[in-house]
Predict the 3D structure of the following.
Amino acid sequence: MSRFLNVLRSWLLMVSIIAVGNTVQSFRDHSFLSEKLYTGAPQFVNGLQARTFGIWTLLSSIIRCSCAIDIHNRTLYHLTLWTFVLALGHFLSEAFVYKTAPLTIGVMAPLIVAGFSIIAMLIGYQCIPESQQEVGARQKKRN
């Protein structure tokens, strides 16, 4: 396995562990979201929204951790990449479309993590060898 994929696996695991902490915080005290993320419209943050955010974060964490364990699984790799694309889209839309999350450090951090992760995963994708099944399927299509 390439050195880059080992670093990427460590990065995914670290991001996953941090996300579990954010999940716990979302369930414990929903004011965390109104004070750190959605400061443009804190009146929209309630317990239900915080728990939904927490479940979404936990699901992303599980997918990312699974990818760190089995980084050669291309389907899982794609799903993991999509978790970062969705997170980036969510925070960008909240910041610039809905104006509920001004660009504070609480919003900039997930934007930077998602952006960096997307770039790293696109680079890392080049390091993943194709499985024999994928090679065979491509050859069948040519015939």
